[in-house]
Amino acid sequence: MRVGILGSGDVAKSLAAGFIKHGHAVAVGTRDRAKLAGWAAQHPEAQVGSFAEVAQFGELVVLAVKGAVALEALRAAGTANLAGKLVLDATNPIADVTPEGGVLKFFTTLDESLMERLQREFAGARFVKAFNSVGHPLMVNPQLPGGPPTMFICGNDEAAKQTVRGILDQFGWEAADMGKAEAARAIEPLCMLWCIPGLLHNEWAHAFKLLRQQ
Ligand SMILES: NC(=O)c1ccc[n+]([C@@H]2O[C@H](COP(=O)([O-])OP(=O)(O)OC[C@H]3O[C@@H](n4cnc5c(N)ncnc54)[C@H](OP(=O)(O)O)[C@@H]3O)[C@@H](O)[C@H]2O)c1
């Protein structure tokens, strides 16, 4: 698959390396190519471009920018470049304020997630929430004593979720489909829970697992 990744941060770089590892063609997008110069030198197989160039390149677009600027980044990517495409949304709506007792604050409410806002504005794109509830070092083929962890996903388009299930399988995760876009109201706050041990005790090496009775 051709994968266009919007973002130059840790998540963008980790997922880009994962897609390259699993044989996909990757382009990474930024407003400032200099930010990716060192990374690009280490990953000569990846292309670097603007948000618009990378969105146009991707059959699949990964959204990996700061949550507060997600709409802005998608507007820069361009509605036409996103039309009909699967947008794998790894963002979290973290507010720029100090956490309280290790609990992050969000700029969204429990009645409307960030992904629903994005899906509403970019109605032609097919958003799937994924990779928002784990730290970037564990995103690709995590080796944990309890076996493959669970990635909670949601989105309105069944075919798009099926594609994301396949990616999660390659990346060493079990997918748990929580339903339509509204489920992002529950999946995005998993990031708050995931971060608490980190913010309180500097423990960041964990992931969620859903256990089911057979
Ligand atoms: N860090 C983690 O382990 C982790 C884990 C799960 C989910 N997440 C979520 O994944 C997303 C990415 O996290 P991150 O830590 O990799 O990076 P980040 O620091 O949250 O975001 C960096 C990205 O945001 C873009 N950005 C900043 N201001 C912008 C603006 N005004 N307009 C357009 N783009 C702008 C930057 O673009 P330029 O390249 O153009 O500067 C850069 O690509 C976040 O939503 C985060 O909550 C993070």
Total number of strands: 8
Tell me roughly what share of residues is in helical segments.
Answer: 25-40%
Q: Widest sheet: strand order?
A: 3-2-1-4-5-6
What radius of gyration results from the CA coordinates? 16 Å
Q: Which molecules are bound besides the chains?
A: NADP nicotinamide-adenine-dinucleotide phosphate
Shape: globular
Series of secondary-structure elements, N-terminal to C-terminal: EHEHEHEHHEHEEHEHH
Average residue pLDDT: 98
Low-confidence stretches: none
**Intertermini distance:** 34 Å
Describe this protein's structure.
The chain has 214 residues and is α/β, with parallel strands linked by helices. The protein contains 9 helices and 8 strands. It has helices at 10-21, 37-42, 51-57, 70-77, 79-82, 114-121, 158-170, 184-187, 190-201, and strands at residues 2-6, 25-29, 47-49, 60-63, 86-89, 126-129, 150-153, 174-177. The protein has a 6-stranded parallel sheet with strand order 3-2-1-4-5-6, sandwiched between helices. β1, α1 (10-21) and β2 (25-29) form a beta-alpha-beta unit. Bound molecules: NADP nicotinamide-adenine-dinucleotide phosphate (NAP). The site of NADP nicotinamide-adenine-dinucleotide phosphate has 24 residues, from α1 and α4. NADP nicotinamide-adenine-dinucleotide phosphate (NAP) is lined by residues 7-12, 30-32, 35, 64-67, 69, 72-73, 90-92, 94, 132, 135-136.
Short synopsis of the structure:
The protein is of the alpha/beta class and 214 residues long. It has helices at residues 10-21, 37-42, 51-57, 70-77, 79-82, 114-121, 158-170, 184-187, 190-201, and strands at 2-6, 25-29, 47-49, 60-63, 86-89, 126-129, 150-153, 174-177. The chain has a six-stranded parallel sheet, sandwiched between helices. A two-stranded parallel sheet has the order 7-8.
